[in-house]
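Minutes, project check-in
Item: structure for the 411-residue chain
Input as provided by the requester:
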Amino acid sequence: MIAKAKSISHGAAMTNYATKHNRADIVLTRNFDEGLTPLAMWGAMETIHQKYEPKFKRKPVTNPTLRMEASPSLDETKGWTLNDWYEYALRFLEEFQKDVQAKEGKKKGKGKFNLDRAQLFACLHFDAKSGIPHLHILINRIDLDGNLMNDSFIGDSAVKAAHAINIERGWELPEDIHEEHLKEITEACYDILRGMAKYDWDSYKRGLENRGYKVHEQRDEQGVLHGYTILRGNSRFKSSTLGKGRNLTATKLEATWKKLHPVAPSVVKPSSTVGTLQTTERKHISGRNSDCQSVVQTKPEAPPIFRIILSVDEKHYSIAMPLEAFTAMKDAIELPGESVPFENVLNVAMLLFMNYVDAATSMSESCGGGGSTPSNWGMDKDEDEREWARRCAQLANWLCKPIRRHKGHRH
């Protein structure tokens, strides 16, 4: 069983989706009049929102609804009736509330996270492709007494509630399920690559979609693909976590395809004359190569360099790094959120590579990120430039991750 939760603003649309346009099985309702349709229940929630709107005039509630999903596996729910789903919903909400209240500590009375005083309903939904049943639960954050329920860390509380029930019922743990799904998707990726006569991204993506997965691409402003994420139901798997040695990332896919399609060496049946000519010619070429080698040793070819000038806070920063390090850096970029452009994370990584730490921090904050660079940040003495580039990319991934700031309550 897995579960997740978040606060949302689009309650009406979510109600329509979760109930399949009023055709879902309603498993549990609380604090509603009898016989209401799902959209009518949403209307009753809006009535509460409007009733207490003046109370929140100074700080309007932008996300008035809690959206939750709880999904046991097919095996775990085999033969379940609606009453079984009802008992399961009650148990899940009980564990969820217990964890949220534990986080609230000694808070008592008004404002306490209390689902008994909240409007909520749970409906049974079936995934369109996999057929896996799961519960959609919608909860009004403004309870019947006008108290606003805290939505901090509710996602973590949903996960812990699922974990508690898994232990209680002897079900498979989410981390084990995730590992199984990871292996399943990895094998599907390899299988699709094996079946391709020639490498083509669109064919690869179509193969994944034909197997019921969704593929989210990460492209830059020029449309160049730099990464992708595979969605399996409610779970997301970054390409960097698939395969071995990151060999299923966008930049390594074609090379992986080639390894899965080795070219058989051509067999030539030489005659004795041809063999003599080849031996004589080989000696002649070998002599010339030895002369060329001495020239190469005295004049080594300089490795290609990637150069760019970045502007941060009206200052210009010159970037110069080996092309192979730049390539390794791009491969290690993992977008921390769909709203963060690939170029922003890459630019932060390049600034870190050149030790422009303040500029890198400033740029990460400009795209909604936060955090700080470790005080001992820098390239290790024995560190390879490519490994250093990857480490810069990993820190950039973290620095650019959008943060959620919570202001303290005024008394």
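Outcome recorded: Residues 272-298 form the longest helix (27 residues).
No further action items on this chain.
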